[in-house]
Amino acid sequence: MVYTLLPMNSQTRAIFGFADTIYYIKPISYYFLLSSNKEFKSDSSISDKNLKCLNEGCKSFFSNRINVRELEYDLIKDTCALSDLTNLFNYISWKSIEVMPPLFCLDSILNLVHSDYFLLSFSSGFTRTKENYHSSIAKGFFISALTLGSYVSVPYESTIDLRVVLFNKQTRQIILSNNCKMVDCDLDSQKDIDDQIWKIFKPLFGK
Length: 207
What we know:
Number of strands: 7
């Protein structure tokens, strides 16, 4: 379940270096496990592991930006608002929009702050069981042999996607929409996560 964002060029005004406060909620992560029988199952362990890496990366990135504030709200426990967020990113994935649709439950949370600018992020993807990964590798080699090497299928061991949207809460205009592929987080990959978070926010905050 991977979505690709369309390029968004809308902008309310020049915001680089501006003094207005941007609020953000910690990234939400939701991952699936692809089992040997090709069934997708919710995977809380990888969700928790990658969420910790994403939170650490965001904390590191935002720590030196005095105009960025975190809204203390556990969105993962609010199923209605989380559904709004999921629907928003799914909608953006298929339509190039400049103004956000109504968010209902999520709107009431955003109204807790008085700043115009808000940043939302959502990470999703899947990981495979070892059996599924090895069988996919074998299938790829078999297809490659049949096509005499003209077609090579190399499966992803895991696919993780981070999507962000910055918008003006009052006008509902989207200022920035971006996404990137993330690496699966482990003890040695926090720097990789931090680098990717930097890349996805660079269009907003500049160098």
